[in-house]
Input
Amino acid sequence: MAFFNRKNKDAGKTASSRVNQNTAVGAEEQQNAIAQQTDWFAEVRKKVSETASGEKTETHDVWKRQPKAYTMILMVVLMAAIFIFFLLTPILFTGGAKDVGDPTQLGTAVSLSNGTSVTVTSWKYAPSQGRMEIKMNVDRGDYIQADTMEFQASLKHGNEKNLAVNAVVQDDDYVVLIVTGIPSKWTALRVDMYSLAAIQQASTQQNAQVESLGSIMCLQKGVSQVSSITPKTPEEYRADVYLDQIPPYQQKIDSDKQQIAQNKKAIAGIEDNLAHMAKEAGKPMPQDKLAELNSQMEDARAQEESLKEENKDLESDITTNETAIASLRAKASYYTG
Output
C-alpha cells in the first residue's frame, strides 16, 4: 500500500512536471508568435512609410535603371519642337508669306472679270529708290469698248499697306505702272485692277462696293532687281514696246555669227587635210590604200560643202533679223522722234 502511495506521488510529480514543461513551452511559443507579429507589423509600417515618402527615390531609381528610354523620349520631344519651329518660321518671320498666294508668272495671261486679260512682260524693282516698274500687255478680246482701269498697289507683310501707283501709260493694248514708297523689306506686292466706270457709279450709291476685276502679284525674292529706274515719258514707254523686242533678234544674230566663224575654221582645216591627202595620193601605193584615201577625201569634201551651206543659211537669218530690228527701231522712233 505504501508502495502504491509512493508510486502515485511520483506519478503526480511527473505529471505536474510535464504540465509545467508544457506551460513553459506554450509561453515560449506565444512569445515567439508575438515577436513574429511585432516584426510583421514593423515591416508593414516600413513599407507604408516607403510608399508614402519614397516615391521620388523610386522614380529616381527608374531614371537610373532606364536612362536610354528617357533619353530617346527627350530626343523625340526636342525634334518635334524643332520641326514645329521651322514649320511656323515662314509665317512668324515673313509676315504670313504662306498666305499671299502664288506670284504672277511673266508671259502668263491673267483673265479679268470684264472679259479682258493682262500679261505681265516686265517686273523691275529698284530697292535704293523704293520704286517698281510694271509693264503689261492688254488683250481686249471681244470686249470692244475700252474700259479705263484704276489700280491699287498694296504690300502684304503681316498687315496690308497701300502704296502710291501711277499708270504712266494706259492704252487699249499696253499698260505701264510705276509704284513708289516701297520699303526695303517686304514679302509680296499685289496690284488690284478696278473698272473706273464701276467706281464712278458706286460713288453715287450709298454703301456700294466695287469688286476687283483681278490682280497680279510678285514676291520680293522673285522680282528682277535693278540699280535704278529712270522715269520715262508715255511716248518713250510706247517706244519700249518695240525696243524691248530687239534683244532676242540681236542675240540670234550674235549666235549665228559665232557659228559661222567656227564653221569657217573647220572648213580651213578640211581644206588643209584635203591638200595633204591629194599629195599622198600622187605617191605610189597599193590599190586598196589608194581606194581608202580617195574615200576619205570624198567624205571631207562632203563635210566641207555641208558647212558652207550652213553658213549661207545663217547669213540669211542674220539679214532677216537685222531687217526686223531696223523695222522695230523705225516704229519706236515714231514715238521718240
About this structure: Residues 2-53 form the longest helix (52 residues). The radius of gyration is 51 Å. Residues 1-9, 11-25, 55-60, 90-98 have pLDDT under 50 and may be disordered. The helical segments are 2-53, 55-65, 67-93, 196-202, 234-243, 246-281, 287-336.
